[in-house]
Write a structure and sequence with these properties.
heterodimer, A: about 400 residues, alpha/beta, Rossmann fold, Alpha-Beta Plaits, 3 domains, six-stranded parallel sheet, four-stranded antiparallel sheet, about 55% helix, B: about 120 residues, mainly alpha, 4 helices, about 0% strand
Chain lengths: ~400, ~120
């Protein structure tokens, strides 16, 4: 403690991250601190008792000393099976009387009882559980920070969990602890999420994104601004929030949120779309499951074709993506926004296209690698041109 | 003002060393019982201290205890008395290290007090 090197903190200001693990370590030290005096009294009385019996009986051989220790321990603990000495009964009993008068209140009533009390009251198991959780939390990276525990974020956490994405929950209200524990959230802290130290403490610098879903717009705004000041890059750190009206949503977007959802508007649109297109039970459910990420065996991604890509001008048949990766190109969105659904193999890829690819998550990962390889190829070619 | 909590803990830390050294020279069973009692108390007093070298202090105290407990068993059973003395010497070394840490800590405390003014 105390000798840590001063690290350069890359974000603005000089706020140190809140160390949740250290808080619980401190709590554990405080428990130990309470044990000092009771344990000291017990050890002192035992030692003095053994020593006195040795002096009274004038015996220092191993057997006698062990018997004296036994005698003292059963006296202090008020068990008292038998006497630990054989000869010189009167002197020993006289000593035992005086010893017990002192040792009983000191070592038993104060020492042992206080020790047990400290263990019962201090909730060691809970301290250990939190300490272990925060120790594991320090190693997280690429996780999502979720603010506030309510029905919306419960749904978010449930779906992210299915995909194996780690989340850290920040909840200002400590009284929700039992619900949070019952819901089985792995990492959570009880704190105000608009504080820089709290966001740094839950590893915002290594996180992938943040979800803020408070009922009050002001709370969302303060969280968004704080998070965006620490992680200014919108592409690297994704902030999603909820707002009660469109005006607030616009402000949140201007202040740093990537996406803002207005629940009432979203629900209204969904209802109206259901009215306009009476749902076919299989198709709409399937699309919905893909769109909301409910299915873990199928997913959809978007790949952008950058300027100067070697893919431009080639047909879908030529690049043989399906054969190599197992994923399917289900649609192409052209630069002007026109969508070509279910493109044929003869469709030509153009500059600025977005390819929508559907498939098993594993196949999609292969597809991403497939397109990355093309991009690298392009970069190499560009470098060659530059050298020439 | 004298910090009486500190007097107690320092008292026992120093007493742990002196009683330990006393046993090494006298080979006396009474001295051994005193030494182990004082060493155990010195360990307990280091529990939960939130100072600069508290972890190191506790570690040295535990080393001293783990030397003296087997030393006591060996001495009173009479199996291997020279080894018991040897272990007590080891405990004394641990106690000396503990006192060195104590002095370092005192220096740091003074430095910090100066900074605060």
């Amino acid at each position: 403690m105390g000798f840590k090197k001063k690290k350069k903190i890359p974000h603005y200001g000089k706020v140190k991250p809140k160390n949740y693990r250290a808080i619980y370590e401190e709590k554990f030290y405080n428990v130990l601190l309470k044990l000092r005096w009771p344990l000291m009294v017990v050890i002192f009385t035992t030692g003095m008792g053994v020593l006195s019996l040795m002096i009274i009986n004038n015996k220092t051989d191993g057997k006698s000393v062990l018997n004296y220790l036994f005698h003292i321990v059963i006296s202090i603990s008020t068990v008292g099976y038998t006497e630990g000495y054989s000869g010189n009964i009167e002197a020993n009993r006289l000593f035992s009387i005086i010893f017990l008068m002192i040792a009983f209140p000191l070592a038993y009533l104060y020492g042992l009882v206080a020790t047990v009390q400290v263990f019962l009251q201090s909730d060691i198991a809970n301290i250990y559980r939190y300490w272990r959780m925060y120790k594991a939390m320090e190693k997280l990276h690429g996780h999502y920070i979720i603010c506030n525990f309510d029905e919306i974020t419960k749904e978010v956490i449930k779906n992210l969990r299915k995909r194996g994405i780690k989340v850290v929950l920040i909840e200002p209200d400590k009284s929700k602890e039992p619900q949070i524990r019952n819901f089985g959230i792995e990492y959570y802290v009880f704190d105000e999420p608009y504080k820089r130290s709290v966001l740094l403490g839950v590893g915002i610098e290594k996180a992938k994104g943040l979800v803020s879903a408070f009922e009050e717009n002001t709370q969302d705004l303060s969280v968004i601004v704080t998070a965006r000041l620490i992680r200014p890059d919108k592409d690297e750190f994704y902030i999603i929030a909820t707002a009660t009206n469109e005006g607030a949503a616009e402000k949140m977007k201007l202040l740093g949120a990537n996406e803002v959802i207005v629940p009432s508007v979203t629900i209204g649109r969904r209802i109206s779309s259901l009215v306009l297109h009476p749902p076919s039970p299989t198709i709409s459910r399937f699309m919905e499951q893909i769109a909301y990420g409910e299915r873990t065996d199928i997913d959809i991604i978007e790949i952008k074709i950058p300027e100067g890509s070697p893919l431009i001008g080639k047909t879908l048949k030529d690049i043989k993506m399906r054969q190599e990766t197992g994923a399917t190109i289900v649609a192409i969105i052209r630069k002007d926004g026109k969508m070509k659904i279910a493109p044929s193999g003869n469709t030509i890829i153009e500059e600025g296209d977005s390819l929508l690819i559907l498939g098993h998550p594993k196949a999609l990962r292969r597809a991403e690698e497939f397109f990355e390889e093309y991009e690298e190829e392009m970069k190499e070619k560009m470098e060659e041109v530059e050298v020439e | 003002m004298i910090n009486w909590g500190k007097v107690w803990s320092d008292f026992f830390i120093v007493l742990a060393l002196t009683s330990n050294v006393g046993f090494i020279f006298s080979h006396d069973p009474y001295q051994l019982v005193i030494a182990i009692t004082v060493n155990l108390i010195a360990t307990v007093l280091k529990f939960g201290a939130k100072k600069i070298l508290s972890a190191e202090m506790l570690a040295t105290a535990l080393v001293a205890d783990l030397h003296l407990i087997p030393a006591t068993i060996l001495y009173f059973t009479g199996i291997h008395v020279p080894l018991a003395i040897g272990l007590a010497v080891g405990a004394a070394v641990a106690n000396i290290i503990s006192i060195v840490f104590l002095i370092i800590e005192i220096i740091f405390e003074y430095k910090r007090e100066e900074e605060e003014f």
